[in-house]
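#struct-pred
JK: can someone run the complex with S-adenosyl-L-homocysteine? inputs below
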Amino acid sequence: MAGAPDAAPGVSGDLRDRIAARIRAEGPLTVAQYMELALWDPAQGYYATRDPLGARGDFTTAPEISQAFGELIGAWLAETWRQAGAPDPVTLCELGPGRGTLMADALRAAAARPEFRRALRLHLVEASPALCAAQKTALAGASPAWHASLAEVPDGPLLLVANEFLDALPIRQFERAQDGWHERLIGLNAQGDLAFETKAAPDRVFNRPWPPGSMAEDRPAATDLARAIGARLARHGGAALLVDYGYFPAAPGETFQALARHRFADPLAEPGAADLTAHVDFEAFARAAESAGAQAWGPVPQGRFLQALGIGPRVERLGAGKPEAVAESIRGAVRRLIDPAQMGSLFKAVALTRAGAPAPAGFAA
Ligand code: SAH
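RT: done, structure tokens with the ligand placed:
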């Protein structure tokens, strides 16, 4: 856990009490406001205070499972850069780089294309001080610049990559009753505990053609981001690759979840102590990017995407000459990424390019 503080019981109590006090003073919070506080409160927010990744943390991500993931993405970036006319310089931007593992693996693979390696300028968008510190160590040789948001990243030809970033952006939740949509809010029950309640939502806040009884989620921060990336690609060219768990097409449903120590937890029980996420609506993301002038590709299931990029032969090369137990553990890690019953199908990759650009690798019809 890279020297980050552990989720000591009691530590999150203060944040819960501060959230309760705010609800008493200002009324119930939207789920998005609650996520923002639980994840990013500077003193006790989940991401603001720790490195949550890995076997001893709360969850594990694809780049932490196998180096093949970042290496194949590095080759994808180099090839997509060539397809985009090899702009030099080009901004290589990662959103939410975690420990920097994906980018370190990608840059190692990109060393095989020296002209790409020389052209790229690395920009990282990261809000967690603990993870910025880990990235600084992992990417020391690559002179990255850090930013709090994409808006701060210099404009120009762009290659952007993000793995498990969108799922952490705050969502709002809605329920369809007989008389229309109601927003799910977080207030206090009679015992003073955090509890869900609902309030009628005007059509301008949320409206989808789904029947009474439906739950639905909306993620304005993701659609805003899609439009910002799409507008940059339309102006200057380049490409973006975003991988996450989620669904396509858009559909009603409830996916808000809390994860602590690799287990599902109650999202309201201990704000700051659990990761809060929701599945990504890839259709909403792709349509928003297109509305800004970009072209969206996919989403393609992660297993199919990685196989199209050659993960099979890559794994055999990684295992070659190693003791059988090591080769088998490399194969097992990759099975976890591509097996539809594990991460291969729930996780999906979406790409964005300038309109009219050729299909990026892994996204051919
Ligand atoms: N991409 C990494 C980490 C995924 S966890 C991996 O695959 O291992 C989500 C990452 O996004 C973390 O680095 C987290 O700190 C960052 N993050 C989440 N929301 C953010 C936001 N609004 N602004 C900046 N960084 C954010």
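RT: quick notes.
The chain has a mean pLDDT of 94.
The first helix runs from residue 13 to 26.
JK: thanks, will look after standup
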